[in-house]
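A note from the maintainers: we've had questions about how concatenated examples are separated. There is no special marker in the raw files; a new sequence line simply starts the next protein. For clarity in this README we add a label.
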Amino acid sequence: MAVEMGLWRADGDKLTRLVPTSIGLEKQLETYIESDPGMLGETLLIIGRQVATAFGGFIDLLALDETAAVHVFELKRNKTPREVTAQALDYGSWVSTLGRSDIQAIFEHYRPGAALEEAFAECFNETLPEEVNATQSFTIVAASLDAATERIVRFLNEDFGVPINVLFFRHFVDNGASYLARTWLVENENQAVTPSATAARKTKTREPWNGKDWYVAFGENEGSRQWVDGMKFGFVSGGGGKWYSQTLKNLPVGARVFVHIPKSGYVGVGIVSGEAQRFDQLSVDVGGVPKLLSDLQLVGTYCHDGDEDDDLAEWAVPVEWIHTVAREQAVWRNGMFANTNTAAKLRQQFTIENVSNAFRLED
């Protein structure tokens, strides 16, 4: 049964049904969606329009949602039921093969000079996930649709879990004003295809790690942990619970660390020169003489309740700084990598490049 949308004008006790018109609507829909993707019912970042595929076709619109899943939008226009359904699936199958770098290249072609990471952060107020295009969904956009296409889409979606749907728009004109109404064919429009759980697939959808760069969060706590100490005496630290210190212990000697103060920005880059130890047991070089951190005149105390227990203690890692700045001069650009873990592999080239340029680092 075909989907029907109705719109009535209420004049007191009288209802007057408005008759929809599709004249010119499908030519306008692509532009409407591009200018305001929120009309689709969720926040989306458009990353491409008329995207050329590897086999000669052109995808009308590509978008990312807040999980970095890719949405393929194909407008029906004058296609037959078989054409529009097959084309949406064909384009979707090609999109599913794209890696993170391919998605970034599509966006850079669509918005020259813009960074995908920054645009994603502006759109969703979140950092671009490490995995991009791990899942996909395919949507046919139409002003009207025949019963055969509706049956095909319902069959694929409801019986086989294929993430394909139809988004209907109707155009109404009343007393010189124009209105658009929207509805979905199948209610589970947020369904997305589950990616193959293989290492090769995950490698394509994630930015590759260069094997040397790490992210470290130096969470300043008033009275306990202060960046001025780490900058002066060459260390990063974390503690007050196993969750805060355990990732710090993963930092290998020789790793390059990019140090970030949450809500401020990046303040230092250096090389790990030793393994993690309890803060009160770590010695650092001061004027050529090794000294315990706990014996130095520090701004912070680095003490926690119950820290006789190793899991609650502050832990520190010695670092030979390449470049540091005070917290007030921290480097930050919307879209840069930030993480709740104290230490994590830094894959995001956007962050590495921006910090390196700001600190004038050589590779």
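[label: protein 2]
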Amino acid sequence: MTGRVAVFSTGSWGTAFAMVLADAGREVTLWGRRAELVDAINATGTNPDYFPGIALPGGIKATTDAAEAARGAEFVVLATPAQVLRAHLAAWTPLFEPDAVLVSLMKGVELGTAMLMSQVIAEATGAGPERIAVVSGPNLAPEIVRRQPAASVVACADRVVAERLQRACRTGYFRPYTSTDVIGCELGGAVKNVIGLAVGIAAGMGLGDNAKAALITRGLAETTRLGAAMGADPLTLAGLAGMGDLVATGSSTLSRTHRFGSSLGRGMTVAEAVAAAKQTTEGVASCGAVLELGRRHGVDLPITETVVGIVRDGRDPKAAVQALMSRPAGPERC
């Protein structure tokens, strides 16, 4: 083991997780596509685009050279937008060490294939399940870069690999738990981005805490139904990677998903909200793929369908909420 880690991203979560890894004693190389940002990171020891004024640990350097980033890396952390992952992997895979563990920080579903990111990684790289891991949980990057306490889940089908990754990213402020339920962990992160949009929309419309609590709880029910159909453990979705992540994303103004949804609820168009966000909001890109995933597994996802209607089809949020509330009533556990 080299102790080296490559993080393919200079965005907010990639940078925050790189800090965690460096604080845990790892030598970290960030890959970024924009030379000006890479140069600024190396020159100032900060990421001025995402966290101006926050000093990065000394064990972090940045490069635009993917081969340099990947060379000798025990863990390769992938934190690109979900919809461009496959294209990137076509170029990057030959650069990875043959035994490198590929770690997904992404919380999306691929359009067209309705694949989770671990499935895209497996198909695009040929890596076996023992080389694919995910990190998911209530991890708001602006809090983590300030070293405020947080917990997460590191999941891999191989428990020993999950424990290796756990050791690689455990610090005094970041507490990772292990799991072998990769599907459950990933699904919790992907669907919570869609439900988080719904909660943000409700907040932007001025709806109260009762409505937001109902969306979070029934959104978790949607996620759990879909997870069960896909072979996930329902207990995973009741934990950090499910309920925990959903609460943080749905309730915090630090969440870009919440802010985007709130913009829609206040009357912005999707185009206006995208321009205001200035960052990828995975729930917007992936909501249609999540709905397709539900249809493929025969699972009803009414909140997800409502979000798709607003985001993709331009439906008025007030009319969408009214339609959601008018659905036939039934038992809570179904």
